[in-house]
Amino acid sequence: MTQDVEMMEPQAAAVVATAPSNSVSSATASSTLQHLKEIAALIENGAYTKEVRRIVRAVRLTMMLRRKLRAPVVAAFLTFALPSGSEAHSRLSSYLPKEDEHEMDVDTATLVGQVSFKYSLPELEIYCYLLVLIFLIDQKRYNEAKACSSASIARLKNMNRRTVDVLASRLYFYYSYSYELTNSLAEIRGTLLALHRVASLRHDELGQETLLNLLLRNYLHYNLYDQAEKLRSKAPHFEAHSNQQFCRYLFYLGKIRTIQLEYTDAKESLLQAARKAPAGAHGFRIQCNKWAIIVRLLLGEIPEKTVFMQKGMKKALTPYFELTNAVRIGDLELFRTVAEKFAGTFSSDRTHNLIVRLRHNVIRTGLRNISISYSRISLADIARKLRLNSDNPVADAESIVAKAIRDGAIDATIDHSNGWMVSKETGNVYSTNEPQIVFNSRIAFCLNMHNEAVRALRFPPNSHKEKESAEKRRERQQQEQELAKHIEEDDDDEF
């Protein structure tokens, strides 16, 4: 009897220890399911009233819930939102992973609910595809996500509803992302082109913008810059209905312009993309700043130190800070050292080919410093100071000096008989038109920013028609705000 008691006590203790955790997980799961039901009701109202903004709000709330999604919760929501014997329900349920029996028992007891939708709305069906796809990607089940995304695109081809466009644009993005995660982006290029053509025929403007960005990303992933530029130039004009899509478009445009040696346009596009990007898009803003730094260096500009000290970007921009320092000093040997030290980083950022172009800028900067410091210096000393490692450094130095004089980088002459470079006296820059040109460029930049801010003002469609009373509108907005507040409170309680 004593031994039996001693053996049962640990089991009883284990039951007591696991009970609170199961109850907490059940409470979290039921709360998440309740939020998903409220989001489904929001989508249903948006579909019936044909208000796209409600569906946009539903997608935004879903992104806040994505890290709480679990397989039992998603399965219970599919049972709630879709008819039990429907094709969509059986297909989406097959993609969900099977959980432990113990966990399934706990969740089943807490998540059972009655189905409120007697028939499946197209918007709700597409939302279920989107929810399952997001869950599979977050769980790193990329093969299942790939299959689910292909099935969702096949289902979308048969729908032409304005209230589905917002959900479709998100599905397009995750469709391409799932194939990118499996290194098979080239397989869907034809499908994306066909979807873009269909979106243009249906006047789905948000879908056109999303698919254009996905196609540009597809081409740039394989370094097909010429094809990307041909597509961009012949595609319908970008109207920027979504700020996120517009930022992506500017970033891709900046990369194309950089490869095409159009550095001024590339700089404007990259800086605008970094400025317009949301504060939460941390990685995107880092990439924009990396490319913008390279482009400014190629233009002969030196970025300010504050660019490298932005919050959360100091570590990521350290290689580019050292590269900028080497270009600023004009030290060719230091430039080689930095390029070799961070070769892996530059290759992963796909900026290594651009950094090779910077070698000429380093030489030109060093030559400009020499011309300012010396009124007369021999070509042999120039070759030694620039650290030109070649068979005939004096001849190379002479050609470099001649090209810099022709381009206007330095104001000097070459005395071929004595082998000297003679620098001219530095004139007063304020006696030229250069200050006026710089001031005019700053004014144009401010005016352009003002015009973009005016164009970015949004108004709901048919705002001149009063569809609902002010009291109903306030009540609807209050309900949406309360839903977002509940989700945030649950996040705080979880931590």
TrEMBL record:
Q: Which SMART domains match?
A: PAM, PINT
The record's annotation in InterPro entries points to: CSN3, PCI_dom, PSMD3_C, TPR_PSMD3_N, WH_DNA-bd_sf
Q: What Gene3D superfamilies does the record tag this protein with? A: 1.25.40.570
One of its Pfam families is: PCI
Region entry Disordered, spans: 459-495
Q: GO terms for biological process?
A: regulation of protein catabolic process; ubiquitin-dependent protein catabolic process
List the keywords (alphabetical): Proteasome
Domain PCI positions? 247-428
GO cellular component: a single term:
proteasome regulatory particle, lid subcomplex
Give GO MF terms, alphabetically: enzyme regulator activity
Q: Where is this chain compositionally biased, Basic and acidic residues type? A: 463-488
Tell me yes or no: is Ligase among this UniProt entry's keywords: no
- What does this protein do, in the record's words? Acts as a regulatory subunit of the 26 proteasome which is involved in the ATP-dependent degradation of ubiquitinated proteins.
Which family would the database say this protein is a member of? Belongs to the proteasome subunit S3 family.
This chain belongs to the protein called 26S proteasome non-ATPase regulatory subunit 3
